[in-house]
Each structure stands twice: as structure tokens, then as C-alpha cells.
Amino acid sequence: MDVNIKKLIPFVSNYKKHIYLNVFFNIFYALFSTLLMVSMIPTLNVLFGIDEKIYTAPKYEGIGNIKNYTGDFLNYKMTTLTDVYGFKIMLLFVISIIIVTALLKNISNYFASYHVTRLRTGVLRDLRKKLYLKIINLPVSYYSEKRKGDVMARMLGDINDVQNSFFQVLELVVREPLTIIFSIVTMFIISPKLSLFVLVFIPVAGIIISRIGKNLKSKSIKAQNENGIFISILDETLGGLKVVKGYNAEESFIDKFNSSINRLLHLSNSIGNKNNLASPMSEFLGIVTIAVLLWFGAQLVVEDQSITSATFITYIALAYTILTPAKAVSKASYQVKSGLAAAERVFTLMDQENPIVDKPNAVDKETFTTSIRLENINFRYKKENVLDNFTLEIPKGKTIALVGQSGSGKSTIANLLTRFYDVNEGKITMDGLDIKDIKLKSLRGLMGLVTQDSILFNDTIKANIALGKPDATDEEVIEALKIANAYEFVKDLPEGIHSNVGDSGNKLSGGQKQRLSIARAVLKNPPIMILDEATSALDTESEKFVQVALENMMQNRTSIVIAHRLSTIQKANSIIVMQKGKIVEQGTHEELIALNGTYNKLVMMQSFE
């Protein structure tokens, strides 16, 4: 059994009831499909005037004599009905057998489909829940290496492929093979000679069809990977539309997009061609079989007279009914290969190890009392150290500013304190306790984060601000907005705090978005605040509003300020000047100016990048 099918079993096992009922009704569907064909025999016999009249009810003599008993019983019933009620009532009786059988077949079909639908949609929901849980819990580092579009393609397209292929197969592995088996058993009862030929045809057809489908799985994986690239290009285009237009880069993006969808076209055509060949190939092989059956069967009817013409017509109809399920099975074998490729991509993401998880004995920490200490930290994203034997103590209630040129390791410290990444060597402690021994939810609950990019979601102002405190009242939200110097523009909006901010907050200016981000941190009210270049993207006027908001927020809190502009950090208790992952200077603004070193040069340049 394929490893990905094994991984799917736990999801399917939650819906055992629906599987059993689907199988139950499919058995009856297959049985009534065969009986529907067989029920034509008495009608044809009546029309051709073949049946002999039987006036005595036959005796049942065991399963070995079932064929003769069934025929004699029907003849006895028809003889009785004809003698008592006349030919029309007897004809109505044999036709009603067909109608009732067809009704029972279609009722079985409905209930089988009902239960497989419950199974498919339930498993689809569970797969999406599990995958989203994995996506949201994987560390930030995972997404710095992967395309967002590829992750989205797995969630949207691949899971649908898994659902469509595997659960269609569940339908087919019961219904269609049973239809074939019941038909062949009935055909053997009617004529063993003719049926032996059919048994030879089925494996030959299977071998021919499987040969056509070679390499389908690998091509499906390539197509699904390309689908991820195409979604990524679309996502990047929409996210950076102003830049694309501003630099007249439309042609470049159109070329990139067209190249991707052209590759997808070729792969899809190749997969589609093989899929499309399965059905006509199986039908052609079936027609060849029926043609040979007609040649053999005609001799049995005319020369041997071992079967009647009505029985032979029914036999041919049964042989033809095998074609539809055979076509479905052959087509399903292709879809399984496509489904296996999709399942491989889904479960590759689902099985991704998350290195940043709680230890089994991790503790809850609800207060911050003394200090945060980074001890002999070495950290690297790839090969070279970004932080090199870095040591720093951040006392409670103090504002510590980190300054330095781009690439000096400032933002990395914010990533390590929040455990978006883990240190390679050394340790970070809070009140003497290694942060790896603190539960992640508890650790991040003690921290508020304001980043350079004001991340807002397509929801109301209140919903965005109450992210860290979902039960916050309107009054608490308004108070946080006032501290963040944001209420002055929010109160003028038509719906106030219930106004929608648009996709990524695009209905607001940069300064307004940043002040809402600060309000979000204020409402959470954590003892430790991390400001990662919170004003670097703002114009001077917006910066003034935000600066006041930051100063309001940092009162009586421990603050780590990663600085871009002088105004943000000159009131800090201690300024740490960094260069290539090391501390080169440390002190207050006045002390560092007096040193006339690296910090003074940065001040003169007014550039903390």
C-alpha cells in the first residue's frame, strides 16, 4: 500500500459508518444493476413467444438449480396470470419487474452517493483543519524559504485532488468491480462457454491501460508544483502592484506569468491526453469483445440452440454493462496516480517537523520580575554567524535601544526573544529561566511586538486591535487608541472602531496603520515591548504622532527598541551599538556622543538602517 494512502487512513477512519453504509448500498446497486438486465429475459420471451406454459408450481431443489427454478417460477406465474387475467396483465407484470428493479437500483445509488458525499466532505474539512494547524504552527523560518503560493496551492488545489481521486475510487472499488462480478457470475449461469472469453479479456485490457498511464504520477507532481509557482506569481503581483506599475515592470511580470502557465499547459495536456485515452481504449476493447461474443453466440443460438435468442440478447446486454464500470475503473486508476501525487505534496507539508515547540516539562510564566539576559549567543540563518558570542542584559523597566547598520543583527535579537527562531549556541534567560523552558504561548503573552510593516487584517479596527485580547470592550479599545494617538482619526470614520480597514489596511495611511499596530500592543498590555524599527517607514509628520504614541506606550514597561531614527532612541536608558553581530559601544545618548565613535558617526549621518 502506498505510504500516502496509509497516512489518509486515520482521516477516513473517523467516518467508518459512512464507509460501511456506502459499501452496503453499493452492493445492492451492483446486484440490482445485474438483475435489471436479467429481468428483461421474461419480457423478451413473452414478446418472442418463446416461453412454454407451466401449470404446476416448481419445487426449489437448492442453489445448484437456481437458474432453472427461477425461469420455471416466472413461467408458472406468467401462465397463471395469462389464464386468469389475460395477456395484458401478464405483460404488465413482467414490465413491472423491470420498473421495481430499476427503482431499487436507483434508490441504492442515491444512498451510496449520500454516504460517500458525507465521507468526502468530512475528510476534506479534516485535512484542511490539520493542514491549516500545521501552516500556522510552523516557524517563521519555514516561510522565509518557501513560496507562499506553493503552500496555498497545497491547501486549495492538492487537497481537492486528494478528495476527488481517492473517494471516487472508494466508490469504484466496491460498486464497479461488484457490478462486473455479478454480471460475470450471471453470464456464467447463462452460458459458461461465452463467459470464459470475457475472463480472458479483462486482464488483457488492464495491462494495456496500465501501460498507457506510465509516468502519470511524476507528471502530476510537476504540474502541481508549477501550480504553486503560478499562484505565487499572482500573489506577488497583487501584493506589489504599485511597485510593478511604478517601475513599468508589467511586461516582465506578464512574461514570468505566461512562462509558468505555458509550462502548466504542456503538463496538463500531457496528463489529460493519457486520462482521455483510458476511457475510449477500454470501450474499444469492450466492443471488440462483444463483437467476438456476437460471432460465437450467434452460433450457439442458431446451430447449437443451447440458449434462446432472448437469453442471448440479455447476455450481450450484460456484457455491454461491464463496459461502463470497466471504463470507470480504468479512468480511476489514472486519477489515483494524480491523487497520489497531490497526497504526497499535502503530507510532505503536513509531516514537516516544527523545531520550535514546547518542551514536555515547559512551564507557564505569567510575570516578568528582574531581567532578560542573552548569554554568549551565536546565531546564523545559513552559514555565517549573524550574532557572534553576543551577551546583553535587559533589566526590568528599562528601555534598551539597539542601533547599527543593516545586517548588524538588530532584528535577529527580536526574532530570538520571541522564539521565532532558536539560538544555535548560548542561551536566553528571563528571570534566570531559559526561555526554551517556558511555554511558547506564555512567553509571547509577556511580549508586545510592533514591527516596521504594520500588519493589519481585512476586518474592523476593533477586531485588529483586540487580536491579543479578544474579549476587550469598546471602551478598552478606545482607551488603547487614545494612548496610541490614533483615536483622533478613528473617531472621524463613519463607523468608528467598527470601520473595516480593507485588505492589509489599505484604506488607511502608513502612519495611521502604524498607530493601530501600537494600539494593538497597548491593549494587550504586556510587561515587555519590542519595537522593531516601528517608525522607519513613516514620513516626518506621521513619525511625530507615532513617536508620542510610542513614548506613551513605553512608560513603566521594559522596552527593546530596534532603532532607525535618532528621535526614537535618544531617551533610552542604554543604547547598544552593533556591528557584524557584536557590541562595539554601549551607553546613554550623551555618553556615546562624548565617545565620538561609531554611534556619533551614525548620528551625524542620521541613518540607523
From TrEMBL:
One Gene Ontology CC term in the entry: plasma membrane
SUPFAM superfamilies: ABC transporter transmembrane region, P-loop containing nucleoside triphosphate hydrolases
Keyword set, alphabetical order: ATP-binding, Membrane, Nucleotide-binding, Transmembrane, Transmembrane helix, Transport
InterPro entries tied to this protein: AAA+_ATPase, ABC1_TM_dom, ABC1_TM_sf, ABC_transporter-like_ATP-bd, ABC_transporter-like_CS, P-loop_NTPase, Type_1_exporter
GO molecular function, a single term: ABC-type oligopeptide transporter activity
Main subcellular location: membrane
Domain ABC transmembrane type-1: 91-338
Transmembrane segments: 20-41, 85-104, 172-190, 196-213, 284-301, 307-323
Ranges for domain ABC transporter: 372-605
Lipid bilayer topology: Multi-pass membrane protein
Compartments reported by the entry: Cell membrane
Coiled-coil stretches noted in the UniProt entry, renumbered to this chain: none
PANTHER family, A to Z: ATP-BINDING CASSETTE SUB-FAMILY B MEMBER 10, MITOCHONDRIAL, ATP-DEPENDENT PERMEASE MDL1, MITOCHONDRIAL
Identification of the protein by name: Antibiotic ABC transporter ATP-binding protein
Organism of derivation: Flavobacterium flevense
